[in-house]
Automatic annotation (TrEMBL):
GO terms for molecular function: inositol monophosphate 1-phosphatase activity; metal ion binding. Keywords: Coiled coil, Hydrolase, Magnesium, Metal-binding. It comes from Salipaludibacillus keqinensis. Residues 1-28 form a coiled coil. It catalyses: a myo-inositol phosphate + H2O = myo-inositol + phosphate. Its EC number is 3.1.3.25. InterPro entries: Inositol_monoP_metal-BS, Inositol_monophosphatase-like, Inositol_monophosphatase_CS. GO terms for biological process: inositol metabolic process; phosphatidylinositol phosphate biosynthetic process; signal transduction. Its cofactor is Mg(2+). It comes from the Bacteria. Mg(2+) binds at E73, D91, I93, D94, D213. Transmembrane segments: none annotated. This is inositol-phosphate phosphatase. CDD domains: IMPase_like.
Length: 266
């Protein structure tokens, strides 16, 4: 086991190096012109940069850790039907709309899983140079500084994050607007989970996220005592899309009750 941990420490160092290399590439490409395409609908963008960053990780993994598998948003996920062994769950650019329109507020997200358990987490805010990282049992960090365990909190003193579109879809979210201190929306799931892990947000809520949106952030949250489940309060499975409530553990259940329990406080 000690040997395995040592090896995984090396995997973490290597992942960080590649993330920084990919970030330099992204920043360089951002200044030039790159192809932008829509995927399923106008809210869903992909660029050549997303695809090239995923190809970069695929190549690096096959050279350096040929037994590791990659589950990335831009195609490599199709090979992955289970989480046996070591699987890197990658979102090459999370927040592509922000990348294209704002040239900021996007992240590279990686969760490295061993036999289905998150061991290593990375969420890198490329433009702010903020690297959130974690190693199982060894805590979470922001640019090398340890992140404290999440403190006791109450919903009426909490800042929550979700997209406007979700409120149109389910007006029960309106209750959260009334019962919280404020609502924010960044459009970059991995970073919003990292913000929950670092206390900048108290909860992040979404109706439809894939494993690559949440794997890195989930690993971070585990290390600071955060709680992340689907809307039914069930564990996340990292093989399918699902709803998400990623929150300070003191308000997580209250959020579910506020949304779904009609008799609960209005
Ligand atoms: P993406 O930028 O990698 O696509 C936007 O609110 C957040 O939700 C982003 O993290 C975005 O990830 C994610 N997301 C997941 N599925 C999406 C979809 N079908 N369309 C737009 N954003 C999606
Ligand atoms: Ca996408
Ligand atoms: Ca994403
Ligand atoms: Ca993406």
């Amino acid at each position: 086991v000690t040997k395995e941990v040592e090896t995984l420490e090396k995997v973490k160092q290597q992942a960080e190096e590649w993330i920084r290399e990919a970030a330099l590439y992204i920043k360089k490409e951002m200044k030039g012109s790159f192809a932008v395409n829509t995927k399923a609908h106008q809210h869903d963008l992909v660029t050549d940069v997303d695809k090239n960053v995923e190809a970069f990780f695929l190549e690096k993994l096959s050279e350096t850790f040929p037994t590791h598998r990659l589950m990335g948003e831009e195609g490599s996920f199709e090979q992955i039907k289970d989480l046996s062994g070591i699987v890197w769950i990658l979102d090459p650019i999370d927040g592509t709309i922000n990348f294209v329109h704002q040239e900021s507020n996007f992240a590279i997200s990686i969760g490295i899983f061993l036999e289905g358990e998150p061991i290593i987490g990375f969420v890198y805010d490329v433009m702010r140079d903020e690297l959130f990282s974690s190693f199982k049992g060894n805590g979470a960090y922001l640019n090398g500084e340890p992140l404290p365990k999440l403190p006791k909190n109450a919903l009426n003193e909490s800042i929550l994050s979700f997209n406007a579109g979700w409120m149109l879809k389910d007006r029960r979210l309106e209750k959260l607007v009334h019962s919280s201190r404020g609502i924010r929306s960044y459009g970059v799931a991995a970073l919003e989970m990292a913000y929950v892990a670092s206390g900048r947000l108290d909860a992040y809520i979404s109706f439809n996220l894939a494993p690559w949106d949440i794997a890195g952030g989930y690993a971070l949250l585990q290390e600071v005592g955060g709680k992340a489940t689907n809307f039914r309060g069930e564990a996340l499975n990292f093989l399918e899309k699902d709803t998400l409530i990623a929150a300070n553990p003191w308000i997580h259940d209250e959020i579910i009750n506020t949304i779904y329990n009609q008799d609960n406080k209005q």
